[in-house]
Structure formats: structure tokens, C-alpha cells
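SAMPLE LOG
Freezer: B-3
Tube label: C17
Construct: single chain, 322 aa
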Amino acid sequence: MADMPIPHGSSPRAALPELSTVWLRVFLEVARHGSFTVAARTLGWTQSAVSRQIASLESALDGAQLFDRLPRGVRLTEAGRVLVPYAEAVTESLHGAGRELAALRELAGGRVRFGAFATADAALVPRTLAAFRDRHPDVRLSREEGLTPRLLDRLTSGHLDLAIVSTTGRTPLDAYELHHLLDESLYVAVPASHRLAGQGPVLLAQLADCDWISGSPRPESTLLDAALRQGFRPRIAHVVGEWTAKQGYVAAGLGVTLVPALAADSVRPDVVLLPVLDEGTPARAVYAATVRGRSPSAATKAFLGVLAEEARGIGSSAAPVA
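STRUCTURE (predicted):
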């Protein structure tokens, strides 16, 4: 059987009526009380104002009469009875939306998805998580760990709301809104038996003849950029990614390694940290990055605030030295 032609100017689906939610609210009050007068009293309106709202609603519904006007009160017509569940569904949906939006504003719900580079997990991230959980226990938090370039990719793609990143690696950060958290000082970890242990701050050039332990076979775009700035290329003897493993190599006398301030509190007792003199230049700046032009949620803004507080508490505080 051939499809029936659709008349010119018509639609295979009925056109959606343009309805005001105020009309629906007034309609439900009149239906509930069976009276324009009582509905007006409940709403704090005049009876004539209620009558106008119902007339506007009936007009928008192609003149469908919703109430029979009786000597005393009103009664739903068949059209009115059909409309009741739809009006209730619309108003309940709007109430639900209002409740959820209020919960987001009041941080009684919502979520924050954030990422952080590894050494931020030593102190900054756990302290922030603990403080935020105490203040906003109903906000869901999820965390990813990764290097700054990957975290920024995840942020751009919408998989993260916020990323804790650093300037190490010289990753372009111009496309992001950056919230400065702290400037990190740098330390060199040496075994307790090392000749420089106990001598205070050092220039990296004083360790130019040492074997180095690094997370990369090349110093470029790592913390060991600092050695290049001080005029020597470090001899990387062991490539070790995990921080606690690096400490083990140092304690065993297999080399020395650089430690950012964020990780300094977690150093083991048989390793000594020496502050690095780098002509006043911090090893790296640490930021919380969000996507420029994308409005952060109330929960994300609150998380940023707590993160900044904890960062101020950590700052570039001195680590234990010999």
C-alpha cells in the first residue's frame, strides 16, 4: 500500500502547543480545588487573574474547554481530564530540575573529575581530598594520574573538569585557564654516606660527576633541565619511573636524583635531601588548569578553593636536610 501524501503545510506529527508553565500551575490549582476563587486564594492572586490564565491556556490549546462552569465552582471537562497528567508531569519535572540545580549550588550533589601528576599525590592531593570530603561529603570525586600533556588532553576532551599540572616539560598552557597553586623548590636526594650530605644547599654542578637516576633517559623536559641550565649534561645511569623506587636506588648508593618539594615529605630516613641553588628560579610552577571559556561547576569551583588553601599550606616549605 502506497504512503498517503502529506497535505501541504501540515506535519506528520501534531504541532507542539506553546504553553506557559504558569498556565499549567494555575490549571492544576483550579482542578485540585474545583474553584477559581479557592485557587486564586491559594496562589495569592485575584480571581480575574486566574480566569485570564485559564482562558490563555484554553486559547493555546486551540480553544479546548478545560472546565465546565457550574453555579458553584467548576468541573473538569474531558479535555481537562486528559491534560491533568501531562500538566503534573511537566510541573514535577521542573520541580525536579529545580531541586537538582539547588543541590548543585549548595554542593549537596554533583561531581568533580580531576587529574594530577604523580608527585602532587604525595601531599597536595590527599590533603585536598580530605579537606573537601569533610566540607562537601555529597560531592562525588574521581581522580586520574598522569603526565601533564596527557592530563591536558583529557581536560580538553571533556573527560576531566580540572587538572593539576606543572610547567615541567614546557607543555603549552596558553589554551587553558590557569590557577596558580605554588612554585616548587627543588632538592637533590643523596645517600646518607655521600660526601655532600650535611653541607647544606648545593649547586647541581657540584654533582656533575655523579650517576643520576631519572624517569627519562634524556634530561630535556624533565626536572633535570635544571642541570642543563647549570652547564652540564647529567649522566643518567638508571631510568626509574616510580618515586619510592628512585629512593631505593639512592639509598643503595647507585646514584642521586632530583626531588620536587611536593614529594619531599615522603623521603625515607636513609636518604638526605639537599636544597638546590638555581639562581632563585623555582624548579617548576604548579597550576590547576581548567578549559578557557568553559564554565566550571559550583563543585569544581569549591574544589579549586580547597586546593588553593592546601597549596598555600604546603607552599615551598623546606624539606628535612642534613
